[in-house]
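Re: 2-acetamido-2-deoxy-beta-D-glucopyranose structure - here you go.
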Amino acid sequence: MLWIMNLSGLLSAAMVTVVLSPSLQSFPPAEAIRSSHLRRIPTGATTFRQAQAFPNADQCGTGGPGACDPSLVHIAITLDRDYLRGSVAAVHSVLQHSLCPESVFFHFLVLETDLEAVVRSAFRSLRFKVYSFDPDRVRGLISSSVRQALEQPLNYARNYLADILEPCVRRVIYLDSDLVVVDDVAKLWRTNLGSRTVGAPEYCRANFTKYFTERFWSDRRLAGTFAGRRPCYFNTGVMVVDLDRWRRFGFTRRIERWMEVQKAAEGGRIYELGSLPPFLLVFAGHVAPIDHRWNQHGLGGDNVRGSCRDLHPGPVSLLHWSGSGKPWARLDSDRPCPLDHLWAPYDLYGPSL
Ligand SMILES: *[C@@H]1O[C@H](CO)[C@@H](O)[C@H](O)[C@H]1NC(C)=O
């Protein structure tokens, strides 16, 4: 049986009706990844079209300049050559659905600063700051993982937001580069984290055991870290982070310590994936749960088998192509999955039409 979902209300760009098949089981482990096999795109400022202007609505405050204005919504996102098209589409989607787009401040984490020109030319009057992420900061801590793409240093930049962003930035939304937001991000921003440091949608029916190796579970000194909490899987591609608390409790160091355990691993590795497991080790069971609509993940499916994924049941505020397939690659190769057409309206890559 097919069911038809009308997503037209979600998209201001186009009326899109998508036919989906209802395979609604929970997804296997998927981590937002950088696939090094993807075609690199040239990054002259002219390779991206300029987006329309996105002015604030009348009821929005004007606020002051800089990143320290308390009325701002802060978003951190990485920019690299392989995923640039995805990052630009993500920014575009945020602006398009915000009531107050000029009150959104973007923090771009980069290895190469020349990407700033692309952002500047694609978006007029975008409020942003570019931060150089030093790959040496994590290089010694990264162990080889099941997928080479998971080993890219920029995948680990999310561990260091509290150090990299200015101290006046007290909360940030971290977003992966393979997603689009189809709702006002200010709603996600206002999430109540209670006493928690990280907020994210939790998936308590996912099999948590498989994110760690047998060696981890059989060593009580290691597995004991989950004593007294009920750990659930969450995806680190969409997180609301209380940076004040993060700084106060030194979570960067706690994450690094788990990476050191994995790296040392005399008795064998304790997990197979890349940047995700240390987050699970530190935060699983201590996460402020956010509505699942804010991370409809797994849409990347599996490029090798060419499989397409459906949405989880329920409303959608954010579509996330985690997994190895990316919508731009599938659209370019004329073999898109049905949901890839929801990404296309945000794509700014290519010459002006
Ligand atoms: C969960 O995953 C582990 C490790 O892969 C496996 O041994 C176990 O049978 C799984 N449990 C369920 C309920 O599927």
